[in-house]
Write a structure and sequence with these properties.
alpha/beta; 53% helix; binds manganese (II) ion; binds guanosine-5'-diphosphate-alpha-D-mannose
Length: 366
């Protein structure tokens, strides 16, 4: 009989064609003596990563590739990769050789000793962040302490993307996972119904040789949304929070354009206001597409079509807003209350309708 599978290493990839072959070779070496498999989850990289992986997988059935199309997201990739394997121990690691594969046997041993979670940690004796700039280090540390306080997580390095869990940890957390953004470990720990026995293993974050980091300012937004979801998400859907935050910025844009059109271009009020509405709508659509719906962003002709639908939907939302406000004002005469009620109805309408028409859900996390 074949010995049964012990470990699955899930590796999310986005444009890592230059790294994956070396990684597979290093992992085969370091995992000798275990029964393992690798599950790569590729978000349709344009540099041919999936092709390179498929060529490897053809010759080695321990290597599998999940290719997701029209999707993005590190956390959701990791979750889907873990769910695709029956292995009792599940590890997550980056594809870019920045995570020290020599930690994997230590993590495996920790789980064998009874720990639920073993984390590759940069922030403890023996660990480190390699060539990070002072700025990235500061941001990382600030985000770390915010997470520790807000979510009551005691890990030294909750932002680490390198860890191993027992499959039970995933099964217990899976329905509560937010699967937003980059921070899969934070998500897992914060979604676990009971405290986990954790072993931290220090490692030096390596240099990236091929390809580039996908960490950008949108990752920071995703991170804030993850924190929001894990704190107030029980009461409000996090996408609605994001949509409303974008809407609030849109009000600023509206007023700016209105002011400019009136004072600089000397347009009559109605034309200036119309201009402001149009610009604010495009602004809101653009930001919602890159922030609120980053995981299912529209591009090219779909972008244009989406913009059209967005403007029609929000136009109707505007009408509903005015209608409700007008009705209430007629009853109670309190303009602030009536105005705010109109805005609330408008936001909920716009959010609801655009989430169905413009960015229809192609997946459900829970
Ligand atoms: N499938 C998929 N989809 N993979 C992705 C995506 C995505 O949208 N974005 C990034 N990846 C893959 C990359 O190809 C790489 O294998 C891994 O996820 C990490 O991405 P990097 O772009 O290299 O991230 P980093 O090095 O800046 O950040 C790492 O360190 C952080 C610690 O500060 C990651 O491990 C983070 O998870 C970690 O928090
Ligand atoms: Mn990296």
């Amino acid at each position: 009989m074949m010995p049964s599978l012990q470990l699955c290493v899930v590796i999310p990839t986005f444009n890592e064609a230059g790294n994956v072959a070396v990684l597979v070779e290093r992992l085969s070496h370091v995992l000798q003596g275990l029964v393992w498999e690798l599950v790569f989850v590729d978000d349709d990289s344009k540099d041919g990563t999936a092709g390179v992986l498929q060529a490897i997988a053809l010759c080695d059935s321990r290597v599998r590739v999940i290719r997701r199309v029209g999707r993005r997201g590190l956390s959701s990739a990791c979750i889907e990769g873990m769910l695709a394997s029956p292995a009792p121990y599940l590890a997550v690691m980056d594809a870019d050789l920045q995570h020290d594969e020599n930690c994997l046997p230590l993590m495996f041993q920790a789980l064998n000793e009874g720990f639920d979670l073993a984390v590759g940690t940069r922030y403890m004796a023996g660990g480190g962040t390699g060539d990070w700039s002072a700025q990235r280090l500061n941001i990382s540390k600030a985000a770390t302490s915010l997470t520790q306080k807000l979510l009551n997580i005691e890990l030294n390095d909750p932002m680490s993307g390198f860890f191993m869990i027992r499959r039970q940890v995933l099964d217990d957390a899976v329905y509560r996972l937010s699967s937003i953004g980059f921070k899969i470990l934070v998500d897992l720990v914060a979604s676990s119904p009971k405290p986990l026995r954790v072993k931290e293993i220090p490692f030096q974050f390596g240099l990236r040789v091929a390809g580039e980091s996908k960490l950008d300012s949108r990752v920071a937004w995703d991170f804030l949304m993850l924190l929001a979801d894990k704190t107030i998400g029980r009461f409000l859907p996090v996408r609605l929070i994001s949509f409303a935050a974008v809407g609030a910025m849109g009000v600023g844009v509206h007023l700016l354009v209105l002011g400019l059109c009136k004072s600089w271009l000397a347009l009559p009020f109605v034309q200036a206001q119309t201009m402001a509405v149009l610009v604010a709508m495009v602004f809101n659509f653009y930001l919602n597409n890159v922030l609120t719906y980053r995981d299912q962003q529209l591009h090219g002709s779909r972008w244009l079509w989406g913009l059209l639908k967005f403007m029609v939907a929000c136009g109707l939302g505007g009408a509903a807003n005015v209608g409700v406000a007008h009705y209430l004002y007629g009853n109670d005469g309190m303009w602030v209350v009536s105005g705010l009620a109109g805005i609330l109805v408008g936001v909920i309408w716009n959010y609801g309708v655009t989430s169905i028409l413009v960015w229809p859900q192609r997946r459900k996390a829970s």
